Amino acid sequence: MNTSCASRFLKIKRSLTHKDVLCCLFITAKRFSTRELLNEAYCRTKLKCRSKKLPQDVNPQGVFACNELDLSEVKVYGFDYDYTLAHYKPSLEHLLYNLGRDMLLEKYKYPAGIANLEYKPDFAVRGLHYDIEKGLLLKLDSFLQIQFGAVYRGLTPVPTEEVLKLYKNRIIPIAYVEGDTRAHKTNQAKMVHLADLFSVPEMGLLCNVAEYFNKNHIDYHPEILFLDVKNSVQHCHPIMHKIVAQNVEEYVRPNSGLKKYFRLLQEEGKKLFLVTNSPFHFVNAGMEMLVGHEWRDFFDVVIVNANKPKFFTEVSRPIRVFDKNANTHIWEKVTSLEKGIIYYEGTVKQMQDLTGWSGHQVLYFGDHPYSDLADVTLEHGWRTGAIINELTHEINTLNTNTFKQNANWLQMLTQLIEDHQDYKQPEALEIIEKWMAERDYLRNATKSVFNPQFGSVFRTYHNPTYFSRRLFRFADIYTSNIRHLLNYSLTHTFYPRRGVMPHEYGSYFV
């Protein structure tokens, strides 16, 4: 900002009524050229932004409400295991990647050069979509719009012009993304949503192999590559379970607050249950490290190999007793659920019928918005809590002064552009074009600090992501770790923030 602009602004800086502002703008328009008027508006806006206090830090240990939740109504607490109670170190991603890569080589006979492809842990994020028809990894917002600058073929960014040529539009039809579920329609979705953290190393492997094929001019079918990688990684999960169970400390992060939280719930007369897709030996090894050998004493019901989301959607699959000593399930009919016994498969309907737990008295925590949370809230009326590991990194980034300054100025600059966009004089268009270039720079700056390729898990340039929309729809509350609930009483009510709708009072600041 030049000195003359600042001095002129300081001379007129005082409390003005709306009528005064209109009058001043009229006088200014008469006195100055369009160029000077726009520069003056820019200076005023910049000074206003600098004069405002930055927003307070967000608490990284906070619990955030999407829907009002009164904990005094909750009598039963349920938990998933992976990425809900057990949080994994980066070594687990490397393990899954390496196992999947080896499977591609051994079972599917992929080129030997793939053995040299190392995992890139900071490449992908959760919540992306993979287009199995076009072979692209991309980020969609809540309106199914593509975020330009976040579309990759292998490890190579795809230019916006090529993206528009491929899709003909920046908005993807919902049937292409989710499939067509209307009557007499059988169209399958052409995109896969990567909604859990186990999919991150899978996408890392997929993109590495695609990049290898592209660089070496090897033709491949994107859907075949996707299925080969997906099957390779999934077939390696039993191997991963065995390795992790034998070396828990190498792969699982300590979580000292878990035992204290379970004890608090138990002492207050709450019922606890565990429903997980993982096998017993894997869960048992992790829970013994996290809580202690007596971990099962805290749970009234433990169900392993649940095969969610089928556990929440099917009605006829019988629940079975799992013999942990023989490492097999028993064929006898289950007529009651007893503490200390491990159960296998089954359905939520059977669990509710045998326990009487139902509706809003149940609060279930999981990390996956679909397989953990969607059906229990939509079909069964349970309350839900999402455990989102990435929140810690996201909030720590939000709390930096640089991000706050850039985000606030981005908001105000965007408003400035909107207010002056109807000027058509050549000199005005030149200035507004500079403002647009600055806005683009700020948008990329606020994106790349979260992840250089894809930005934030929760936001595109200005809209919530597709992942966020699902999270906010299916989770009553969310946080990054179960232990953060220890900061709240068991009668606490979580209230959602009153958001600003487009037609309501505006606020420049995040």
UniProtKB/TrEMBL annotation:
Keyword Hydrolase appears in the UniProt entry: yes
UniProt cross-references to InterPro entries, sorted A to Z: HAD-like_sf, HAD-SF_hydro_IG_5-nucl, HAD_sf, Pur_nucleotidase
Cofactor(s) listed in the protein's UniProt record: Mg(2+)
Transferase keyword on record: no
Cofactor notes: Binds 1 Mg(2+) ion per subunit.
Residue sites binding GMP per the record: 82
Family designation: Belongs to the 5'(3')-deoxyribonucleotidase family.
Protein known as: 5'-nucleotidase domain-containing protein 3
The species this protein was found in: Pieris macdunnoughi
